[in-house]
Write a structure and sequence with these properties.
The complex is a heterotrimer. By secondary structure, chain A is of the alpha/beta class. Chain A has five helices and eleven strands. Chain A has a single domain, classed as Rossmann fold. In chain A, the strands form two sheets. In chain A, strands 2-1-3-4-11-10-9-6-7 form a nine-stranded mixed β-sheet, with helices on both faces. Chain A has a two-stranded antiparallel sheet with strand order 5-8. Helix content of chain B is 28%, strand content 28%. The radius of gyration of chain B is 15 Å and the shape is elongated. In chain B, strands 2-1-3 form a three-stranded antiparallel β-sheet, covered by helices on one side. Chain C is globular and about 85 Å long. Chain C has a domain of 210 residues: Alpha-Beta Complex (Phosphoribosyl-aminoimidazole Synthetase, Chain A, domain 2). Helix content of chain C is 34%, strand content 23%. Chain C is an alpha+beta fold. Classes of the chains: A alpha/beta, B alpha+beta, C alpha+beta. Chains in contact: A-B, A-C. Chains A and B meet through loops of A and helix 1 of B.
Chain lengths: 226, 76, 717
Amino acid sequence: MKFGVVRFPGSCDDVDALRAAELVGEAELLWHADRDLHGVDAVIVPGGFSYGDYLRAGAIARFAPVMESVAEFAREGGLVLGICNGFQVLCEARLLPGALLPNVSLRFVFRQVELAVARAEGPFTGACEPGERLSIPVKHTTGRFYAPDDQLDALDASGQVLLRYAPGHNPNGSLRDIAGICNEQGNVLGLMPHPEHAVDPLTGSIDGLKIFASMRVHLDDRVLAF
Amino acid sequence: MRARVLVRPKAGILDPQGQAVERALPALGFTGVSNVHVGRLIELDVEDPAQLPQMCEALLANPLIEDYEIVADGPS
Amino acid sequence: MTAFSPSRKHRALGLTDSEYELIVELLGREPNDVELAMLSLMWSEHCAYKHSRKLLRRLPTTGPHVLLGPGENAGAVDVGGGLAVAFKVESHNHPSAVEPFQGAATGVGGILRDVFAVGARPIAVLDSLRFGEPITSDRSRYLLERAVAGIGHYGNSIGVPTVGGEIYFEQSYEQNCLINAMCLGLAPRERLIRSAAAGPGNVVVLLGALTGRDGIGGASVLASAELGDGDEAKRPSVQIGDPFSEKKLMECCLELLDRDLLVSLQDLGAAGLTSAASEMASKGGVGLDIDVSGVPLREPGMEPFEIMVSESQERMLCVVEPERVGDVVEVCGRWETLATQIGSVIDGELVRVLDNGSAVAELPVSVLVDDCPLYDIAPEPPAKPVYASPPAALAGTESPAELLLALLSSPNICSRRPVFEQYDPVVQSRTVRRPQEADAAVLQLPGGSAIAVSIDGNGRRVACDPRAGAAEAVYECAANLACVGAEPLGLTNCLNFGNPEKPHVAWQLTEAVEGLARACEELGIPIVGGNVSLYNEAPNGPIFPTPVVGIVGSLPDAARAGRSGFASSGDAIALVGPFEPSLTGSELAKLRGVSPTGPLPAIDPTAVRAAHDAVREGIRTAVFHSAHDISEGGVAVALAECCIAGGVGATVQLPEGIDPFAEAPGRAFVVSGPPSALAGFTVIGEVGGDALEIAGQLKLAVSAMREGYDGVLAEVL
């Protein structure tokens, strides 16, 4: 199976995501100006500062030609993982509910945080245990998840919150400690923490690998089911 | 036409920038200041002002979290 | 400008009368305005190093690993496996004192360009910062907060990790903060490129951002004069950084080099096009034509001299063979980076500036680059102390436990976490040791090896004893590398000093350069590049003399990189190295209000080198579970830091006669490991429990030490 990693002008964690995906499958970069997704089985919208994050984080990237194809791919049920800036892009593109606002501290924050897996099933967290703690770094200025109360209730009720910051680990003031949410169909995940920076014991933890491994297992199962 | 688009956080949405300014002003001796909000000003020349609301909805503001106000400034 | 007679005009631009007369003599005529603007910048302290160049010849610059030495955009060393690491440190002090956010941001932007200008992908940034006292000075807190935000803004946005650095707070930096940024880049050895223009007929192409009136006269106005009142008025000439443009420019340049499309590459820094064109022509022994009418402008109506000296950021100059221009433009288009032909390489030795084809300046390359007079400075040891005593923060009645807590919560020693948390240390996935996990940052390389890097320089100790203090900076930096198991390969330095025309500052500078040179010779570390920042002086005196050194080293096995924190209960703790510390220049002396004077303890190079070797070997063979050098706050603070980092206590008995707070940086280490493995060293105790106990001195819970250590910067930031 093959991952495609989108590269916008200003993407920074694109190569990191590519290498992380290569630990569980094949992977290639997808150029922002190219509508062709090259037949990939899953798309990663990586971290960074696409288009300088000018205007609002993610606001301009959503109009890149490649994003039209990513949106269509998502609508057809394809797996899309948005990490950090990618999460912001997916929210701006309305592929995910809610919005990401500046951190309460108004500052960039880098921190190795603990995440609690809120839902250990489906394409992104199927390889995790319920309630499992994952040690994964965050690094962002605009990561405070916001949605109106009724929408938050709906997200909770439908099990769309897959990852929360563990108690005491919320780095940005996200409502209800939300670190990662999926869409209603469950095939699009956005999260602020960087699983691609938690795949090598030498550079920190390997807990992020579980996200990529879950995607791999899900896609393999889907192939077997045919 | 020359136009200005004022974008500000929706009422009730936590606005840490506004709060920071609100905290800073009394520290400088300016009292009696409240309800501070920090937004953005976008100035543009536009041939068809009727398109401005769409531009705001699509790109200039995020309607989920921001309100916008269009101010026409006359001919550019 | 026409309102002034020629003699007044050159003075306004910072040239002395005799320098102007020399220019007239060399040219055989009066320079015109464009030429005068160009020469005033090329002959400024910032570009010509006219008060330091003679001294710098003393520094050792050759070694078996050196691939690029001083004079290129950045130095480079061979790190094995066919790879080179390019690196350099540079100051952005004066711009940051005026506008700290943009000053620090563009400081990072500038050093990144220096590194990718030699063909290396930037892989790490470190910063060495100095401010006034943060607790008592609003201005210092403001400068700290904005400079840190600016560094983060640029480094985080461009995807280069900030992996380390250091910060000191001293009264002498109140008016002149220091912002030194260091960048490391990685490249295949054969891709390193020089800046020498070559091949008459080749095309000169300007890459990157539009040219505006940013920093017009910046180098001479901002970098070569003492700051006084009226700094607000200098704000219009501050450069604004755009990391997004630089990110695209960087990726674009690296792709151009990957595809072998460039003859040479040079970044545009101080003095903009003037400096870039002059340097490229000088190194290549050729001339250049630059037509300013081709330069894409951000503001209408810019005059030729403004275009030639603009310091607009995020621009590079390259030389391209004519048949490859099309390919260059195509690559640049994909990266949304402007590429404009603005001139050509010519035979001869002139830099000619044209405006729509007609010459507006014609200067010999040698006059621009080589003929600026170099001045001898007149060193004289100061007759009386240069620096006032700091206010005493201690009553003098404190117990050792209270002293340790006071030191751990002093701004110079406390945790840097509130600063490092504003930087991304992990992007690019090489970072094996993040800030405060070890004494040096460690970055893994393909194949399992790694490089290590640290940046160091304690100005107060250099103020006490410039020669010994500067040498200590080199020893301490090398010691930090030893703690992670790395062998030094090369060094870069930034010399931050006051006004060298004052005899006591000249003496500080001369002594410090001698100390640096000797320490580098003793440790066998070549200096591959650096930067000098002079005139860091306010009306009440100069800054502490602050040579900052950055060393890059290598280690064979990234998996065995050392850590500073104690690892396991039951491990023995030992001192390694010749350790005869004194309170002179120490952090405790500062807290006691003692002025920074007096000789520092001598260094025994042979014994210290042996200690560095032993620690490096102990880490590489995994015999040591932790290693930490003993610097500010003495062995007591070193032990406390090992406990805090490891989350575990320790019980020790210090050897007879060692003051727990006395200092001797760079010479000695606290290591831990299995008792059997440390038998050959001076074992002083054992890891375990939840408190640090120094027999006969103090006992403090690790949690209490951590509380003091963690709190201070969080409160002032």
